Queue: 3 jobs
Job 1
Amino acid sequence: MSTVSPSSVAVDGGKDIAKIRHQDEAQKELDAGALFVLKSKGSWLHCGYHLTNSIVCPPLLSLPYAFTFLGWETGILCLAIAALETFYSYNSISLVLEHHAQLGHRHLRFRDMAHDIMGPNWGRYYVGPIQFMVCYGAVVGGVLLGGQCMKAIYLLSHPDGTMKLYEFVIIFGCLILILAQIPSFHSLRHINMIALALCLTYSACATAGSIYVGNSSKGPNKDYSILGDNESRVFGMFNAIGIIATTFGNGIIPEIQATIAPPVKGKMFKGLCFCYAVLGVTFFSVAISGYWAFGNQSEGLILGNFLDDGKPLVPKWFLFMTNFLVILQQSAIAAVYLQPTNEVLEKTFADPLSKEFSLRNVIPRIISRSLSVIIATFVAAMLPFFGGINSVLGAFGFIPLDFILPVVFFNLTFKPSKSSPIFWLNLSIAVVFSAIGVIAAIAAARQMGLDAKNYQLFANV
């Protein structure tokens, strides 16, 4: 007959009590933003949907416009470099996240990474504010773009219509107001899957429309010369780099990787490969076909070139369909880029010890998220400069977050030897893109100043 000594019972009981206390402390430390918004339940395919919808989105329709400042050779070269560099950077930051997860400390947010790798001040005063500006700016730009597409559809049906742009911005903002209430990032996986099909479809439409107009007598004379004096060309080139950086920008890689169920190893790389397969097809086809068809007359969004003094150069139903597809995907993108804002709001106002859908958490969630969307809609209606917003976001936000910080995090985490090629590659990327970012920021600010001379607040552009 076996016996259990009192001492072993005491030891086992002590271990259990310590384990329970540790779990209670972990629950208290886990804030509501991480608990409710950044749920880790997704697969690598869900990650691919999130990545694709956050990168392959309507700003790609501005790539022909970026080419007007760069020309053929430089434009294609910049596009290829941006594709290679962002894939490398996103994979680098993913490897850093995987490394910390294997050590038992999984980072769920960009600012948490900066806090642990570079110090608390970097996370609190640099990365956190920049990421918030980028994501919230993307929401503002998305609401504006959605309103512009709605207005385009309206004018096709009612050429003499009197509705203003800001009215359509408000209507689109109401749609985002509904989508903003979706509780978590993981909850968007099916919406982002549909958005993936939408971006493939409207990119094909933009490419087909450009080829159609370019081969017809309706299109403009093809002129690929870069306009302006030397100063304008230099600033234009860096303004274009800012636009391309925005188009490839993401800014929420840690938050997307946070949606993956553990273990995370290798899943993000599969998602990136999935995303960049879609990106390669859409970005290059739209950029090359649009610039080929319209040359230096390419507008901020290539869809604007399908109209000549209000008269469609392609079948009217084709314009209806393309703009409608853009509107649908743009609504999903706004919901994606609201997630970091939602996470901050949940962390501030929600209670992690109460149920997610209790009145204690639902009411603050509805109020805070609604106010967030209302403010973004108001700013979008007030400042209808989509091209300017794109370049500013790229210069001040996406270049630091997506081109510079990932390689810095990699070097600080893995500490490669100073004699190794990867150390010098990462250092070179950080230095070169830091310089590009500063110049692009100046160029973006200059372009916004020029735009401000032409537009008024709540302008009907």
Job 2
Amino acid sequence: MSLPPEWDDDERMNFLFSDFKENRDVNTTDWDSKMDFWTALIVKSCRDRGSVCVNLRELSRTFRRKERAPLGLGTVLQSMSRCGRIQRESEFAANVDCGWLSWGVGLLLVKPLKWTFSTLLGSSRVSVEESFVVIELVKEKAAELLRVYRSSEFSSCAIVSFQELCGLSSDVCADESTLCMVLLQLQRDKQVTVSLHEGEKIVKFCQPGQDRVSPVSDVDVGIYQLQRSETLLGERLDKLNQEADRSKEEARTLLQEGKKPQALRCLRGRKRVEKRADSLLAQLESIRGILDRIAQSQTDKMVVQAYQAGVAALRLSLKDVTVERAESLVDQIQELCDTQDEVNQTISGGVTAADEDMDELEEELKSLLDESKTPDYVSDLPAVPDNDLRPPGEPTVASLPAVHQKNLSISEEQLEEELSHLTLTESGFARSKATSPNRRLEPAQ
């Protein structure tokens, strides 16, 4: 067992090895500190040793330091018992079905619970030989044993002999006493039940799919006997096959030595052994066939129970459901679907109209922007008429003679004459304008 670091601190250990004060209220901190230290160390020591039980004598020997033993271990055990962390072995066994006491190993004499509680609460001292069960450790062992069983070759067998279980739990329980405590805990958890059959202890485990183990029935005992017979016949058959092989080898050896009569006797003995082996093999096959049928019947029973549960659940789920109600619900659903389609169409049409209105608003907004760019004084001017503003009789551009496009060859004398003509025309136009400024000007001809 690994000891805590403060084990080498003399000052600290002198305090921890001292006895507890009679009144906890004198120094609550020191009292609780010492109690927590020893409680944790006791549980740790039991876990390291693989044990689920403790007594005062073993603890005093385990925690001895420099020829000294702790003085307050009895107080620690009493406190742990009051808190429910440990239980007297006799009380632990008495809380289980009394039928278990007939096969219990290592259990103390169980006295009435009234005496047990009175001694637990009224006595100020703990007997050095009285054994206590550490509850958290026995629960851990119980869970581990259950896991080992379900992962072993015996998981298909509801009933296992106590001797087979001892071999199976060798890595979990250090001895038979520990195994008994673990089985008692499993019994309290309704996971196993133990009984005696023809003087042999048998253990029945809770099977997968069950909340608690069922009592051992005649069917369980019959299956167990068939399984035991199968095991015994298999062992005998192996022995007969080994004996036949030895007889064959012996006959071969005698024949090599020239002892033919002795070799013949060995061969005759081998034939008899093989006949017995064939008979045992036929019996073994019969037993295996029965076990297979039993397993199949149990599977069929489980399937039938599942069917029954399914029918009951289906009947309960369809309790208020009828064909007329289902048809009515379907019609209502169809009506609601049609209504939803109409609503979707209406919503879609509204969205299109809104889009068109948005386009009109965009056009109007654009026109407003164009108007805002035009100066105010321009907007005050009168509109430009689009009709013909020419005076009556005024020739239009279309009525004017066409411009000659051909190349004209004019001499210098002709150009001077035309220039003088134009000069005279402009002078006459100017005099006419000065004489009557209000008269409409006529172009010179």
Job 3
Amino acid sequence: MLFGLVYLTWFDTLTVTLSILAIVIIQIINSILATDKDTTTQATTAINGILRKQNSEYCEDHEDEDTLSLENLFPCDQTEIYASKKISFIIDELIQTEVNYLNNLRKGLQNYGKLHERQDLPEALKGSAQNQNLLGNIGEIMSLHEEQILPMMLRNQRDLKSLFDEFAVYFDKNHFYCYVIYMINKKTSMELCKEQREWFQGLQTEINDKLGIDSFLVQPIQRLTRYPLLLQQFISEFYKSGISCKPVLVSVCKLETRMRRLLEVVNQAEEISYIEDINELNLLEQGNFRKSTELDAYNHRSRKKHRAKVFLFDRCLVCAEVRKKRLTYRQHYAWPTVDLQLNNSKSVTLLLKANTKEEYEFSSPEATSITAWMRFVLRVMETSRILAEREGKFSLPMDLVLFVALAVWLIWHYLY
């Protein structure tokens, strides 16, 4: 057939038609998924409404450090901040201790990062897997501070608002999750050091390391706990000095809150490696660890009550029984397979979606505890659902790619 000066064969027409149909089908699928998402979001909103009604005086997600106002949006004169000798000293200490921290990590990796090259290395320390067990991801932590954190501090040491704001972004983007991974490996690392104590003591004497490998391996945790302490000192002196630069105060409070939240997760992550009999599940493949909470649990399968530690990951919930100082693995549930049902202000039931069968009932004597936990779990479940939807789904950028590819094909086919 002839359209103007362009001649189209039936093959050409069929090809273009199929391309257009593919685009239309993709848009229809996206619309359906969007509808499902809206339905789920409405259900989540409804549950949150019930939670707020039951305990309107409690709000977990207070963000007072992020309060917006015109005063916070515009820059302020930071001269009076640097005029305070105590505040200047705190900032200098923040940067200098960062430099010292990096130097300690470099020296430690020089001393213990190449043990595989030694001829007298014990059999228990040989192999890349054992080297990973001993040092964890300390190299990744060093790279973060060497390539990003310290340069950021030096770049902004005369602009504290930018320093605090940029620092907070690293926490918002989860760059400091490497510390959580490091803490999960801590038990394995400590056990290796203990088993090979005599050999490490000999090595310490040989390389003239006054503190030893134990001091090196504890450096990351010490540094992470040091950050909020320095910021608390800064905030205290800020108030004492009567400085009026509120945007800087808002930024430092926001950063200090982010640091405390991460530190809480890091401390809780240490318990993960102490869960016994969990060989069937690789927790490092369950996405990021989010939170652990100790609750009273009733197992509907065994009809027994016990104290439980409930660990929340991006992809699943793990339940472990608390036995004095031990944690014994009981069950884990992938988020797409379960629902949560709020019984009252102090108890929640976990059900299997497939048959609405009750699995666990989690409870707490304090209503605020179970309410806060329920709200946090709902956020994790929503995040899991969104991540699952994105996997293998054509989205708007893919549609644009198809349009561009079609346009290029038409131009090439008919103009050349």
